């Protein structure tokens, strides 16, 4: 874990020339924003943190559960995403972690408009793209692209690599003139570390890591500002994961990209992310910089997650407290009242069932200089260091 | 086809020697290169080409008329191998007509019906399946119910009822009747295949790029959903040829002045015990024809799947 840790964790620690136009997105500003009125949820009053490129507000996606064949009757809804809000700043990487089924991938699909949100807003540079369609949406798509989880199914097996990376140019012909496209595709192949000679090969002729590079090249082709990465390395070998992650970091510097990085591997997320959001059952449980989340978690779910991270040092491992959660994740079709985590929480009290904790800086920490001063959706938020070493 | 084979022959040898630089080739380009080396494809393609030539110019293969009945030759069964390309290769039928000449002239009905029904069925059934599978929702609900209704009609019984409506029956009427009842099979296969492919990440990726619906359907879904349809269609082509023969056998397809394998099988079956040769020749011919199309379908399917390469 330690070797993956970046020195300071904040985006300001990156080379200054890498992200020239990034407004300072430091924790200092974050603290300022949250100090005055502590108990107000961010969803009500978007925190000002410089210039967010993507602002997500109260995003909701319910998948209806229906009964009957001809006359479909709605009997309920799977609340895959139930009121998620966050900001993504230019040049930053926002990691989203959470266990399977917590709605991470649905958030990605909603941001890509591959699913229609039930309600909520997605502001890209101040424009609500959740309402866009047709030509206007197509224009926005140029700026938000996606890298998929499974490199074996995300590339059309009947198209050559040249066709796959060149397809964005065919859909958006204004990006590259016709005669130029083949050369551009070869440039992108080179950028992601593939042999440009292989332009006429088919996806099955490449390994998983190489395929994921092809997927990244396709995402880059339109020169987007935001890339949404839905578990981009989960399907790869650990050695290949590092290569792909390093490539993504290199590309971020080269093209000033903002990443929304979805994963369930905490160490990978910590390595690449400037800020991290922890999701549980369709809600954001805690959000903060990587140091705030990893070293000073205040939400019990985050603490439980982090206590499950394997520790290589046996001595440290002995001393460390493990928080073992019992029970399963409740069904998103019928979430618990109040706090969603209360059914598995080791701190749960009556208040948790009655009152829903909002994602906000807990009153205890507001105004303090402590790194625990970040948004956490818990009534009884307290600091607890669970990562050893 | 044999011409192109010989013309292109040196090309693969050169490629085999220098495999390093990849030449730009389309999916069909790759498939064609594979097919040229596949013995099943070569055999079936040669057979089909032969059948097509016979269909187009039956006069090239026999000088005799299929309708010339000489009762002196009644059931003359002995093949006369000495008269190659003569009229009495396979003997004579009940009416004293040359079986060989009837085989040659009967090819046209079978091949035309088989190909035209398959073309109609793949086009309309494929279109319905693609639309139903891709759009889903109420479009799918409506189209699926229509498919269910047609599937409820027994294929042959339905075709018999439809054929009753025609008095002077031509091959294209048989085709229309068979296509009218046969499209559902392809539509169902296509729909299922499209639903599977639609969920693939590369389709999502194309949507995320802002690809239009026609582009997604034609470039991403159709090529990946087509393989099972090709297999089912080629096997079905055989059954359509058989169905035409069956209808003729039952007296509801083509009728006597017309020449068709089904008619000959029908007449041969009546006298199976005393003149088996009158049944054998058209039955074997029908089997060879059906087999050739099924083999071709299999070879094309394998060649179109880059993963099998």
UniProtKB/TrEMBL annotation, chain A:
<keyword id="KW-0067">ATP-binding</keyword>
<keyword id="KW-0813">Transport</keyword>
<dbReference type="InterPro" id="IPR027417">
    <property type="entry name" value="P-loop_NTPase"/>
</dbReference>
<feature type="region of interest" description="Disordered">
    <location>
        <begin position="1"/>
        <end position="24"/>
    </location>
</feature>
<protein>
    <submittedName>
        <fullName>Dipeptide ABC transporter ATP-binding protein</fullName>
    </submittedName>
</protein>
<keyword id="KW-0547">Nucleotide-binding</keyword>
<feature type="domain" description="ABC transporter">
    <location>
        <begin position="54"/>
        <end position="306"/>
    </location>
</feature>
<dbReference type="InterPro" id="IPR017871">
    <property type="entry name" value="ABC_transporter-like_CS"/>
</dbReference>
<dbReference type="GO" id="GO:0055085">
    <property type="term" value="P:transmembrane transport"/>
</dbReference>
<dbReference type="InterPro" id="IPR050319">
    <property type="entry name" value="ABC_transp_ATP-bind"/>
</dbReference>
<dbReference type="GO" id="GO:0016887">
    <property type="term" value="F:ATP hydrolysis activity"/>
</dbReference>
<dbReference type="InterPro" id="IPR013563">
    <property type="entry name" value="Oligopep_ABC_C"/>
</dbReference>
<dbReference type="InterPro" id="IPR003593">
    <property type="entry name" value="AAA+_ATPase"/>
</dbReference>
<dbReference type="Pfam" id="PF08352">
    <property type="entry name" value="oligo_HPY"/>
</dbReference>
<dbReference type="GO" id="GO:0005524">
    <property type="term" value="F:ATP binding"/>
</dbReference>
<dbReference type="InterPro" id="IPR003439">
    <property type="entry name" value="ABC_transporter-like_ATP-bd"/>
</dbReference>
<dbReference type="GO" id="GO:0015833">
    <property type="term" value="P:peptide transport"/>
</dbReference>
<dbReference type="Pfam" id="PF00005">
    <property type="entry name" value="ABC_tran"/>
</dbReference>
<comment type="similarity">
    <text>Belongs to the ABC transporter superfamily.</text>
</comment>
From TrEMBL, chain B:
<keyword id="KW-0813">Transport</keyword>
<feature type="transmembrane region" description="Helical">
    <location>
        <begin position="40"/>
        <end position="60"/>
    </location>
</feature>
<keyword id="KW-1133">Transmembrane helix</keyword>
<protein>
    <submittedName>
        <fullName>ABC transporter permease</fullName>
    </submittedName>
</protein>
<feature type="transmembrane region" description="Helical">
    <location>
        <begin position="279"/>
        <end position="300"/>
    </location>
</feature>
<feature type="transmembrane region" description="Helical">
    <location>
        <begin position="225"/>
        <end position="243"/>
    </location>
</feature>
<keyword id="KW-0472">Membrane</keyword>
<dbReference type="Pfam" id="PF00528">
    <property type="entry name" value="BPD_transp_1"/>
</dbReference>
<feature type="transmembrane region" description="Helical">
    <location>
        <begin position="111"/>
        <end position="135"/>
    </location>
</feature>
<keyword id="KW-0812">Transmembrane</keyword>
<dbReference type="InterPro" id="IPR025966">
    <property type="entry name" value="OppC_N"/>
</dbReference>
<dbReference type="GO" id="GO:0055085">
    <property type="term" value="P:transmembrane transport"/>
</dbReference>
<feature type="domain" description="ABC transmembrane type-1">
    <location>
        <begin position="107"/>
        <end position="297"/>
    </location>
</feature>
<keyword id="KW-1003">Cell membrane</keyword>
<dbReference type="InterPro" id="IPR035906">
    <property type="entry name" value="MetI-like_sf"/>
</dbReference>
<dbReference type="GO" id="GO:0005886">
    <property type="term" value="C:plasma membrane"/>
</dbReference>
<dbReference type="InterPro" id="IPR000515">
    <property type="entry name" value="MetI-like"/>
</dbReference>
<dbReference type="InterPro" id="IPR050366">
    <property type="entry name" value="BP-dependent_transpt_permease"/>
</dbReference>
<comment type="similarity">
    <text>Belongs to the binding-protein-dependent transport system permease family.</text>
</comment>
<feature type="transmembrane region" description="Helical">
    <location>
        <begin position="147"/>
        <end position="166"/>
    </location>
</feature>
<dbReference type="Pfam" id="PF12911">
    <property type="entry name" value="OppC_N"/>
</dbReference>
